[in-house]
Amino acid sequence: MTSTTPARSAAQLTSVTKTFGVAPQEVQALRAITVSFNAGEFTAIMGPSGSGKSTLMHLTAGLDRATSGQILIGDTDITALDDAALTVLRRRQIGFIFQSFNLVPTLDAMSNIALPFELDRRAISPEERSWIDRLVDELGLRDRLTHRPHQLSGGQQQRVAIARALATRPDLIFADEPTGALDSRTSREVLTLLADASTKYGQSIAMVTHDPVAASYADRVLFIADGQLVHELRRSSAEEISRAALELETRS
Amino acid sequence: MSLGETLRGHCPSILVSALGAAFGSCLLTTIAGLQSSIEGIFGPGASFRTAVFLLHIVAGTFFGIALFVGAIVTANTFSAVVAGRVQTIALYRLLGASAQSQRRVFLREGGMVGIIGAVTGVLVGIVLGLSLLAALVANGSLTAAPASVPATVAFPLVAGVVTTTAAAWVGSRAVLAVSPLQAIEAAQEAPFGAVRRRGIRTGVGFFFVIAGLLGLALGVVVSLDNPNGLFIAMLGGMASFTGFVICANLFIPRALNLVGKLFGSGPESRLARANSLRNPERSTRASIGIVIGVTLVTMFCVALSSMNSFFTPEVQADPDNVAAFQAMTAVAVGLVGFSVIIAAVGVVNDLSISVLQRRREIGLLRALGFTGPQVQRTIVTEAAHMAITSVLLGLLLGTTYGWVGVQCLYSRPMAGGGFVVPTVPPLLVASLIAATVVLTLAAVVVPARTATAVSPIDALQR
Ligand SMILES: Nc1ncnc2c1ncn2[C@@H]1O[C@H](COP(=O)(O)OP(=O)(O)OP(=O)(O)O)[C@@H](O)[C@H]1O
Ligand SMILES: [Mg+2]
Fold first, then answer.
1. Do B255 and B180 have their domain in common?
2. Which of A43, A149, A212, B103 lies 20 to 30 Å from B260, alpha-carbon distance?
3. How does the UniProt record describe the way this protein sits in the membrane (chain B) (predicted)?
4. What CATH number does the domain containing A200 carry?
5. Would strands A172-176 and A205-208 be described as parallel, antiparallel, or unpaired?
């Protein structure tokens, strides 16, 4: 994974526009944005509140529809898919980690991890089983598998969510402020796990964050403002990222 | 909050309170009409007094059952309303309101709901009763008598308001557990499965169940050569049923779990099973009304048809007897069945609310790859768990009680001290199954649609 060879993309958005509401209350959340998430990379998305980060993520993950433009996940143009096909795509090709409420409260940790397989009505193969076992050990969840979400700390819940997202080896994992509800030590742990998943297993990850420290764990940082891609950094320190963010803010 | 907004969550409670009051006032108006019509012919006679008194006892019993089921439904509805307002209550608590003052808000709302419901219900019941009498006069079954509204309708009015208010008080107990912190934290769902420890209640319940079962058994044995056995069995039946209702929160969740397992292990049925067990108290209260209703309906039907089987084939075949038998069954089922309607309102409401409260969870499932139809199937399965469990429990209890009753009444004179085989009318089972299917589908239409309308983005928004 060198930055000199043109990377294959896990997801590719081409001139995507998203408009909410109708004039005169019309809001342009995304304005003809073109972005690519490289396969095997950990990408951070930053930008001021209301800049369109969440919208970008929702559209790319097939949770909402673009007003115009093209979105490719792997080789599939998802703008052409109907709801059922999108659902199956999410199930097999996309992983999610949210800020909170990641887990189904009635299921224990292991059932939550196995949920994507179960939703697919698919038995877990021996190969997948050993992969999950490895994830469970690496994420330190071994003795928590039979616990329900309310019996887990916030950090443990996030780790279960990470295990679930990694379990199906999706094309792309989306994380919307995954450390937003965690203290700084737990945040560091979670971010290290995400960064490791991308370096060790080549997992593509896209993470929305407001925190320059979180973004410094990523291979690449995208800056969004006003529904457009305005700047991009390769792996940088937290200081460099905050400086860039500040500059962009004062420029506008 | 405006009055309209306040009342919206209480619609089911108003409906339940109105149904109960209407039932009571309709019964009383009808009885009064029958009485004045009969007295118009024969003049006031002491023997009628007794008959009328007995009629009032019967009506009072059925009304009491309807009221009791209604109170359970209302308590459940109120606890759901409390759950929906936790954030607001927490905010008030944070700003210094006492838990008791917050709970009194619900008491006041309960009173209001009770008054609106009971007044409407009593008026509707009077109109229905008078129309029924008019219809009887019109088809010649009854001689015309001056129509009047008996003063006794004040009873369902008062009873309706009082029970609704009391049920609101019981249902709002959860207010006391709301912590001001819940206004600050994005509160995790309260740990469920953590049933409140209620040793005393469980103890009392078990005592009633065991004493009642012993009473039933003793009654059966005694009645083999003594007519008083029936009385012992009746007490035993009442005690065991009371005990069952008291500790239903121990039986019903287990029964739900068992029935749930019959649905296989697909993701939909697993999630549905987990959901019907997530709050055992609530599923219990949602199901118990149906259990009570089905038990009573079954008891009457089994008792009547088992009795019927004692008569000689000639007696059984006589069209007059058949008609009388069918009429008796219909009236009994109709009177008891009313509480099933009230219970059904509770089931519908419970499902709708539980879907509303699970928006985020459903959104999460959609995001992770649950399709709309899969979500819908989960909700339908959940409703089916509840309905099937309640009907099965009711059939089991009702058959037992019905059989014991017949056994005690007839073993001595008819079977010469032997044992009676209970008859479970196939028509009853068929119609209960049909009613279950209809109820499940009716209860599930709106919630299932709400659930599929949940967008996966809901899960991501705070
Ligand atoms: N469902 C919606 N209806 C109308 N407008 C919306 C909707 N969702 C988002 N918007 C608008 O689109 C713009 C982008 O919103 P978005 O949630 O993507 O911002 P964000 O970058 O994620 O902000 P934050 O950092 O605060 O989460 C905002 O102006 C927002 O008000
Ligand atoms: Mg956002």
1. no
2. A149
3. Multi-pass membrane protein
4. 3.40.50.300
5. parallel
